[in-house]
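pinned: reference chain
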Amino acid sequence: MTATLGYAWWIVELVQVDPNSCSDTDFGLNFTVNGTINFTVNQTPYLFDDYCLNDTIVYEFACTNDVPELNLTDYAVLVGEDCTVALNNSNALCVNGKCELVP
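pinned: its structure tokens
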């Protein structure tokens, strides 16, 4: 389950994938875990890791099957999220593809 407190994410990219080919190591929009997504498109495999766009924005990959609010199946989605919003703390930063609180 996602450990975030707030959401302000936006869709960056949406790609239709081969049926039942998408898997995500952090199981959806989990902004506090650096995950990896695997999927195929026309039987060609793809693999992507979550990453930081800058100090506060995380780019999170997910399978839409793990994101019920999108009401889509068999898509891979890339979303952006502001870590200060996700963790409801102005000291939150994006570090190694995940949101963290920095003292």
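why pinned: The helical segments are 83-86. The mean pLDDT is 92.
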